[in-house]
Amino acid sequence: MAFEFLKPVLTPNALATVQANPVLLAYLLGWLFAIIFVGLLAWYISFVTGQAYKKPAKKPDPKKAGAAPAKGSGPSGAQKLKSFLKI
Predict the structure, then answer these.
(1) Nearest-angstrom CA–CA distance, 11 and 21
(2) DSSP 8-state code for residue 8
(3) Segment Disordered: which positions (predicted)?
(4) 69 CB contacts (<8 Å, ≥6 apart)?
């Protein structure tokens, strides 16, 4: 009989129903593919429109071009005071 390949996944009652009225299986598969297609279409539209409105890449600020200096690498407090007071 037809649809015997569905025996491992369907109960005997469901298999008898599909064999008696195969249009039900066609409707099920048709709606399943339609829902998957609409979902993929919605994802594709959101993906494409998301790329169009992507934020531009930030250009590096020349003032902040270098990395932060290591702690203690700058002038000490006494040196800053001397330069301020010009001693």
Answers:
(1) 15
(2) T
(3) 53-87
(4) none
What pTM was computed for the model?
A: 0.53
**Buried b / exposed e across 38-72, counting CB within 10 Å, b at 16+?**
eeeeeeeeeeeeeeeeeeeeeeeeeeeeeeeeeee
Structure tokens at 6: 């569905």
Token pair for 56? 């531009």
Per-residue pLDDT reduced to its tens digit, 3-24:
889 899 999 999 999 999 999 9
Q: What are the structural domain ranges in the chain?
A: 13-56
Whether 42 and 34 have beta carbons less than 8 Å apart is answered as no
Tell me the helix, strand and coil percentages in the chain, rounded to 5.
60, 0, 40
